[in-house]
Amino acid sequence: MRLEKNLNKLDIIDKFFIIWSFFIPITSFVLMPSVKGSLISYILAFITPFIILFRMKNFFKKYIMQFLFFLFIWISFFCLSQLGNLIWHINLTNLILVSTENIDYKLFRNSLYTQSLYLLPCIMTYLYCKNFYKPIWDKWISYSGFLFVIIGLLKFFIYFFTNGSTDGDFLTNREYGEGGTNSLFQYINILGLSLVRIQSLTGEPSMYSFIVLPYLIFFFYKNEYWKAFITIISIILSFSSTGFIGLFIYFLLYIIYNKKKNYKIVVVIFIPCIILYYLFFEYIGDILNFTFFDKMSSGSGIERSGNIYDNLLYWYDLDFWHMLVGIGFGYIRSTDLFTTLLVNIGAIGLFLWIIFTLKNFKIRLRKENDFYTNAILLLMFITSMISVPEFSFLSMWMFLGIIGSDFYKNRSE
């Protein structure tokens, strides 16, 4: 009754976000499996301009101008990169291309358009959150993020108690790549004990860790320590190096920058580690080998570092024009966002992306709020640059928009 009363007080702008927020973290369920981009969160993002036009007609012109600013940047790189491809020869051999048409096609490859379509809902999400964020959204961000975590844990325990016959996921249906399917579950075998790596409703454990890390910091920001506690357990059970790196970075930032020491945070971070250490004491060596050391020497680790090196070398060997503006947005997808952007949109594009994602990073912390802002921005930036090549996770754009909103900034001042 109380919840219904509170919802009735909300504007349609807020009600729409409440519904949308529960779909924003999900990346493995689509309405039409043949259409890879038919995520519910994307479809809702495309509806946002109509919501704004219906409810905020006086603001709509400003919204369109903001959208056109992003469109201008995209058109600029579109034209400059394709002009460069027309004038100078580029060799696409040995690159990890997004689209599979003949490598002799240098101009207007299919992925230039498909990846640009994925960019549209990202921009719409950012602008919606930047312009309309209110503190009332916080609890719904918390609810939706935690539900996402719980789904991941449920899949883990269903797999465990059914002896690996199923993880109970009947929703995942998204296809990745050219005709590929979403991996239903990824395993870790430790001395005969088979466990599924937590990935919730995403494509893989590293994606799950990348998406959930900002929610973890948000739980700390809202003093929801029990949610943070469970989230850390889920990240550890993803056995993802991305997740472990993110936890390490956050703890390091906390030790360095947080002058007002809150030992609850230290306890919440370490207690799950101690519990899991006690439960999996005999398997710690195998877990560390699987998560870090084996990856460094295994095919995946060698491939990851090799891709970074090859892409850097490829960019360095390009002509000066392409070094600046890239060979085309969405042409390649490496195993990291850094070299993916560097090759696709060049040094200028990468520089603009860094400015865009870190522009609200504060060198001097004036409020406790600033610490959590910095932590979210740095974790998303660092983990994406080294291990997650995707730019199109709407959760990232949601947090960037909220942090950039006037309402949020005023709370920090």
Structure, explained:
The structure is a single chain. This protein is an all-alpha fold. The chain has helices at 2-8, 12-21, 40-55, 57-87, 110-132, 137-161, 205-221, 225-237, 241-257, 263-279, 284-297, 299-316, 320-325, 337-358, 368-387, 394-404, 406-412, and strands at 187-190, 193-196. It has a two-stranded antiparallel ribbon. A hairpin with a 2-residue loop joins strand 1 (187-190) and strand 2 (193-196).
Strand content: under 5%
Helix-strand makeup class: mainly alpha
Instruction: Give average pLDDT, whole number.
Output: 83
Q: Termini separation (Å)?
A: 36 Å
- Could you give the count of β-strands? 2
Shape descriptor reads globular
- Provide the low-confidence segments as ranges: 1-5
Helix content: 55-70%
Number of helices: 17
Q: Any key phrases for this structure?
A:
413 residues, mainly alpha, two-stranded antiparallel ribbon, 17 helices, 66% helix, 2% strand
Set out the fold topology:
Elements: H1 2-8, H2 12-21, H3 40-55, H4 57-87, H5 110-132, H6 137-161, E1 187-190, E2 193-196, H7 205-221, H8 225-237, H9 241-257, H10 263-279, H11 284-297, H12 299-316, H13 320-325, H14 337-358, H15 368-387, H16 394-404, H17 406-412
Antiparallel strand pairs: 1-2
